[in-house]
Amino acid sequence: MGVVYVLEDGYLAKDGGTLKVSKRGPGGGETLLEKPLIGVEEIVVLGNAVVTPALLKHCAEENIGLHYVSTGGRYFAGLTRTPAKNAPARVAQFAAHLDPTRKLALARRFVLGKLRNGQHRRRARSPHQLARRFVLGKLRNSLTLLRRNGAEGWEEIRWAIGELDKAADEGALRGLEGNAADVYFRSYAALLPEGFRFSERSRRPPRDPANSLLSLAYTFLAKECESALQVAGLDPYVGYLHEVRYGRASLALDLMEEFRSILADSVVLSLLNNRRLTLEDFDDAEGYPKLRKESFPKFLRAWEERLTDRVRHPLLGKAYSYRQTVLVQARVLVKHLMGELPAYEPFTVR
Fold first, then answer.
1. 87-337 sits in which CATH class?
2. Quick check: 263 and 228 in contact, CB under 8 A?
């Protein structure tokens, strides 16, 4: 596994060519982990671990992502990979953001998603073209998850897909997507076991354990998407579906739309329905339900298992892990922005 998760409030150091994690405080010094740095792609710190300057320098030089995430699922900050040298891709990204026609069409594709191998489409000329692309993947994959699990409500999602091209602007598109999301989460909640079902999606803070777990999974998914976009040479903060705001990684949020149901929602559904996590794994000491620290490894194992699952990419016809697929999609977006692909094709499952 190329990602190291650190739950202890310990010391992270570079010891020769090895990442060394040790305890700190009274009776500290015990080594908790030793791993060759050559096999480390990212380090995720959940807590208050101390990272030595030598390790920070090594991460910066070797493009190893270092991320700080709270155990409640909030992403704080991180030392990320050096921006790629593909400046022309970022210029094309900004130009597309400023073109209302391309912007809306791409946002549509991110939420809806429809891949047809070997079939290319002419570049759409309808208003706000690009924004539509990002709406495409989300609805298609949400529909797939509901239908696979025998949930009700999928007919309304399919109706929303048919209405997508009628959205005249980004406000209408977001309204359509928001209504579909409400339907989706009501149907999704019905798939959860007793004690975890909720009436609506809640966040900041989540009002129940299932929503808390979803928020946690979305935080980790956003991290994956932001890293992938940086590797591909794009600016994660300038997007199409999500408005540009100070401190918001809008393009990372755009890209994660097509992966929410098949990665984050799928992991949460599996963890709860297979009883790998129960109500006893949560507490509300901070005023809202939160996964206990000792239960975190259960979530992390399930998350990594899902990201390392391999799946065939419909557009490329090759099998990749889901983690690799996120990067592939970032590169597909670059090729579209650079004019090498006539349309951005979101990743969808059958």
1. mainly alpha
2. no
